[in-house]
Amino acid sequence: MELAADEGLSHFRRSSQASKRGAMFDDCYHVAKTWIDKYGDKSATASKRRTKQASKQVSMF
User: Fold this and answer.
1) Which residues, other chains included, contact 44 with Cβ-Cβ below 8 Å and sequence gap of 6+?
2) What CA–CA distance (Å, rounded) separates 34 from 53?
3) Which of 4, 28, 29, 52 has the lowest tally of Cβ within 10 angstroms?
4) DSSP sequence for the chain
5) pTM of the full predicted structure?
6) Which conformational region is residue 22 in: left (phi greater than 0), alpha (psi within -120 to 50 degrees), or beta?
């Protein structure tokens, strides 16, 4: 999350003007939100996956 905020600040520093009057915060927020959606916390999505269960070996004897 902190990296997304840094991306929003970076956008603010690089931007010379907002997309429309009074919307600089909205632009920075949009950049940060897009960044977190794209590169966000991968461990949270990985934990939702099912783990492959170990197959039990059946003995023939």
Assistant:
1) none
2) 35
3) 52
4) -HHHHHHHHHHHHH-SS-SSTT-HHHHHHHHHHHHHHHHS-HHHHHHHSPPPPPPPPPP--
5) 0.58
6) left
Cα–Cα distance between 39 and 54 in angstroms, integer?
31
**Residue carrying structure tokens 């997304």:** 4
Q: Which residues of 5-26 are buried (b: 16+ CB within 10 A; e: fewer)?
A: eebbeebeeeeeeeeeeeeeee
* pLDDT in single tens digits along all 61 residues of the chain: 788 888 888 989 998 888 888 899 999 999 999 999 998 766 555 555 666 666 677 777 7
